[in-house]
Amino acid sequence: WNVWKAAVRLEDSDIPSNYETLATTENPWTQQIEIDMGRTFPEQKTFGAEQQQRLKRILNAYASHNPGLGYCQGMNYVAGLLLLVSDHEEESFGVLCCLMDKPQFGLAGFYRERLPLL
């Protein structure tokens, strides 16, 4: 996990410090995020109800942080993998922000309207 954090330069990133607020703020994507929780790694015994709630908070925080992009199906697997690897909710959010928002990674392009990078 430390390699992932170093690779995305998490320590040098401008990650929102109001994670708790972002994670609990209702937004236009909250309902879709809730629907997708049951579809995320259902075969993983370690990804039960508690992990699903943590993932929901991460995705809700990201959608609130970046309302221009919001949430798109598929983001749940990226964020879910980060959570499985780290078991750290707020750091997973930070790495997700780096992967999605930093131009050198540009993962957000896979989730924008009309999916331009696919």
UniProtKB/TrEMBL annotation:
<dbReference type="InterPro" id="IPR000195">
    <property type="entry name" value="Rab-GAP-TBC_dom"/>
</dbReference>
<dbReference type="Pfam" id="PF00566">
    <property type="entry name" value="RabGAP-TBC"/>
</dbReference>
<dbReference type="GO" id="GO:0005096">
    <property type="term" value="F:GTPase activator activity"/>
</dbReference>
<dbReference type="InterPro" id="IPR035969">
    <property type="entry name" value="Rab-GAP_TBC_sf"/>
</dbReference>
<protein>
    <recommendedName>
        <fullName>Rab-GAP TBC domain-containing protein</fullName>
    </recommendedName>
</protein>
<dbReference type="InterPro" id="IPR050302">
    <property type="entry name" value="Rab_GAP_TBC_domain"/>
</dbReference>
<feature type="domain" description="Rab-GAP TBC">
    <location>
        <begin position="1"/>
        <end position="118"/>
    </location>
</feature>
<dbReference type="GO" id="GO:0031267">
    <property type="term" value="F:small GTPase binding"/>
</dbReference>
